[in-house]
Design goal:
Distance between the termini: 31 Å
Number of strands: 0
Largest sheet: none
Radius of gyration: 15 Å
Strand content: under 5%
Helix content: 55-70%
Shape: globular
CATH topology: Hypothetical protein af1432
CATH class: Mainly Alpha
Order of helices and strands: HHHHHHHHHH
Number of domains: 1
Length: 186
């Protein structure tokens, strides 16, 4: 594996939208927290979070191409096979009938998706700070389908597949994002 700086530079060479960069950094933080919880390699899991959307601008977020195309782009980047697999599988729509089955796959799908919900919740708080968001607000907004309607709640609920109840998962994500909220633009 190369350095994080190498992969961050690579990400920024493919992603120009600052909000997508923030999403990638947030996903990295959540994945590192999940790796810590499961005793996995934080650098490896963090890179999956950082790079999972590297193809989003190239594919136009096409649900039939996004994910697997990113994994293909990254094949020459000296990444572990499990990272490429998780990136390919984070968007099941593009994988045909193949479904997520591994801890890493479920963690990336749930972890990257909850960041969008947390961003949306933070933006309705008076100070618009992630550090002000309460776990209860995240779980309450999960039930409101019209709130942040584009957030895939089924993907977030894959936290159950990795053995973490929603309220604990939301708190883990908030704890991971709060220290980097300024870097994320909050």
């Amino acid at each position: 594996m190369r350095s994080r700086e190498h992969y961050l530079t690579l990400l920024k060479s493919h992603i120009k939208n600052p909000k997508m960069i923030a999403h990638s950094l947030a996903s990295e933080a959540v994945m590192k927290a999940l790796a810590c919880r499961f005793g996995e390699n934080e650098d490896v899991w963090g890179l999956a979070g950082l790079l999972h959307d590297i193809d989003v601008e190239i594919t136009g977020a096409d649900p039939l191409r996004h994910g697997p195309e990113g994994a293909t782009m990254l094949q020459q980047e000296d990444l572990p096979a499990e990272v490429l697999d998780a990136i390919a599988m984070h968007n099941e729509k593009a994988t045909g009938e193949k479904k997520r089955t591994t801890l890493f796959q479920h963690a990336l799908a749930a972890g990257e998706t909850i960041t969008g919900l947390i961003f949306a919740v933070a933006l309705v708080y008076p100070d618009k700070k992630i550090s002000s968001v309460k776990t209860k607000s995240v779980t309450k907004r999960m039930k409101e389908k019209i709130f942040a309607a584009s957030v895939n709640r089924e993907a977030i609920l894959e936290c159950d597949a990795i053995g973490i109840p929603l309220n604990e998962f939301a708190q883990l994500a908030l704890d991971a994002l709060s220290p980097i909220e300024e870097e994320l633009g909050f």
